[in-house]
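Task: sequence in, structure out. Protein: YnfA family protein.
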Amino acid sequence: MTAFAFFGAALAEIAGCFAFWAWLRLGKSPWWVAPGILSLCLFAYLLTLPASDQAGRSYAAYGGVYILSAVLWLWIAEGTKPDRWDLIGAAVCLVGAAIIFFGPRAATGG
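Result:
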């Protein structure tokens, strides 16, 4: 469920932000903003689904998935093949995200 939520959130965030990019930078119609806003609302909802007691830790782990998704967007949606530095950077971020999200935590009293 966590992977689905993170990748779904990343797609929704990138699509929502791209709608604004298309409007402001590519000269698309302002109507692109409406689905962009809906997509950003979906993004926010999906980030509430991962099993984490702390929002900040969940958001930090999500960051690695977002970076990988942005590199995939670059390739699939924008037609620019990622170079080795894009791929290495995304891999490093995913490792960091996994450490943050799945690292063992000491039990605290609260």
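Residues 2-102 form one domain.
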